[in-house]
Design brief:
- One of its GO terms (biological process) is DNA recombination.
- Pfam families: Bac_DNA_binding (PF00216).
- The chain has 2 domains: 41 residues; 49 residues, IHF-like DNA-binding proteins (HU Protein, Chain A).
- It contains 3 helices and 5 strands; from the N terminus they run ααβββββα.
- The protein is α+β, with helices and mostly antiparallel strands and 96 residues long.
- A 3-stranded antiparallel β-sheet has the order 1-2-5. A two-stranded antiparallel sheet has the order 3-4.
């Protein structure tokens, strides 16, 4: 599912909201998650999962084409861990 499909589904489920308002809400939520991660904060959505930032330290890599050693700098990457409820739903134990 892409963001526009998500907006469309939410708008269909909530006919009292305009699609442009739903799009603004979805964009605001995603922007806030990105901003929190950029600050180094953890974002937890109960029943869904948690977003956090992990540090990948600098290392020496290898160019697969030439075999030469390449220096790879330190970087921070987003990490998502699914919540217990989501894992249960995916594995057939969906709560009603």
């Amino acid at each position: 599912m892409i963001k526009s499909e998500l907006v469309q589904k939410i708008a269909q489920a909530n006919p009292h909201l305009y699609q442009r308002d739903v799009e603004l809400i979805v964009n605001t939520i995603l922007d806030e998650i990105c901003s929190a991660l950029a600050r180094g904060d953890r974002v937890e959505l109960r029943g869904f999962g948690a977003f956090s930032v992990k540090n990948r330290p600098a290392r020496t890599g290898r160019n697969p084409r030439t075999g030469d050693k390449v220096s790879v700098s330190e970087k921070f990457v987003p990490f998502f861990k699914s919540g217990k409820e989501m894992r249960e739903r995916l594995n057939g134990g969906a709560p009603n």
